[in-house]
Design goal:
The complex is a heterodimer. Chain A is of the alpha+beta class. Chain A has 9 helices and 7 strands, in the order αααααβαββαββαββα. In chain A, strands 2-4-5-7-6 form a 5-stranded mixed beta sheet. The relative contact order of chain A is 0.08. Chain B has a 5-stranded parallel beta sheet, with helices on both faces. Classes of the chains: A alpha+beta, B alpha/beta.
Chain lengths: 346, 125
Amino acid sequence: MGASEAFASATFRVRNPPELPERERRDEGYPDLSGTSLERITEVLVSVARGDFAARAPRSYSGDPWDVLAFLVNATAEEVDHLVEQREQEREELRQARDQLVQSEKLAALGELAGGVAHELNQPLTAIAVLTELLLANPEKTIAEQREPLELIAVAAGRMGRIVSAIRMFGRPAPLRLEPTDVREPVRSSLELMQQSLDVAAVRIQLDVDPALPRVAADSECLQQVFINLLSNARDALEEVAEDAPRAIRISIRRGASTVAVAVEDTGPGVPKEVENRIFDPFFTTKTVGRGTGLGLSICHGIVSEHRGTLRYGRGPGGGPCFTVELPLVEPPTSAPSTEEEERIA
Amino acid sequence: MRPFVKRKILLAEDDGLVRLVTGRVLEEFADEVVEVATGDAALAALCRGTFDLLVTDLRMPGVNGLDVLQASKECNENCPVVLISGYADDAIARRVDELGGTLLHKPFGARKMRDLIADLLAART
């Protein structure tokens, strides 16, 4: 590129210099700088403007104005070069600091998890330790006579087992198997599994489902676990309400623009406002000791996030406390309209 | 070891299983074990009667074990207080010590608990 062209492009549009034809350029009256000191200096400035900060203009060291200008241009390029290097270094430091922060947050979460596990396991472990010593102190007694402490040990061991399997789910490394899924399927299977205990708690189920539901990308088994968890939480909450108060869970499944949303709303008191932002934290629970591990919602949140969906808590359509699982639709096929579309066309 | 006078122990523990089991051990030392599940209930019980020993969990919803310990010492300085805890750090341990309580770390066995309680009751009488 000649100096005048460089000059023109530098003047007008540095990032994307227009390629002007020779004649047009001359017609617009740009001076011809070929072979001059100005050409060399301009070339350096253009290089700098394009991001090459290593370019330097040759010096004559004569001290004439061109030499002074070349010196100043070089000094400017050098300073810019230095600043850019400094910025890159700062950026790198920032990236490292951010990585460290993420790492320390992970460690903090791990520490919290470990602390919670220790506390939860300590309770039944203490019970077992005390009970076994009580049993050993009476070797002459028969198993039938020692039935109660033995049963309590079994209860404690069962509790420890539940904590361990909850943790296993929490750290579940196996990836989800996402398949086109009718979300009604895991909802139905979770209701079936919960039927007995919902009946015992005298909880009524209302279903409100959009007739034409597109499929979502989901792992049906994992979603079933999510819905079982939401249903059992709702049931536990409803067991606490007054005898004559309504005990109902309303499940509504609605189609959104690019999602399907499953809302599980109950007629219970809901989560106290002051702990609302903690309900998805591992080991946070409002249930009585021994009733919940505090991992359920945390695990649900993880599962739904892995589906690229969201799990939110808020008020439902009926004004009651409500958990909403929103899941993305299966990518629409590029050719051939889906069955839903066909149905709509027909 | 049977006490000459009627002995009463207060047990505050929110975990039903741990309460049942530790209550079983305490029964060996008392004519009456009053079991409560919250710190509030423990405070209420302390107001109503005099106890020879108080055993309380440290971590309870609402009023915690330290509050119960303090309240107990205020109304009956001579009543030994055992704090059961699975996770007492140094600051809590110091606080328990200052208030005149004794820490019992979870998990513990029956023997350890028996020995501690026997010592505390012996030192008292």
